[in-house]
Amino acid sequence: MSIVKVIEIIASSEKSIEEAIQNGITEVSKTVRNIDSVYVKDIKAHVKDGKISSYGVICNISFRVD
Question: pTM for this one?
Fold first, then answer.
């Protein structure tokens, strides 16, 4: 039987939503092993001077516990 743990992260990017998700996974991967999936709970964009300045995501990351 395997146990799966879920953590919530917030990540951002100045380029895209996809890069924001990848930035979060890259950072979490530095300390967490066995990542199985990412569930994007929320997406937002910051606006400055009428243009999108950055993208943000709130994600649940699930991973198997050894």
Answer: 0.90
Q: DSSP letters along 19-33, please?
A: HHHHHHHHHHTTT--
Average pLDDT over the chain, rounded to whole? 97
Cα 57 to Cα 66: distance, rounded to the nearest angstrom: 28
Residues 6+ apart with CB under 8 A from 26: none
Write out the residue range of the structural domain in which residue 12 sits.
3-65
Contact residues for 6 (Cβ-Cβ < 8 A; gap 6+): 60, 61, 62
Confidence class of residue 66 from pLDDT cuts 50, 70 and 90? confident
How far, in Å, CA of 35 to CA of 10, rounded? 16
* Total number of domains constituting the chain: 1
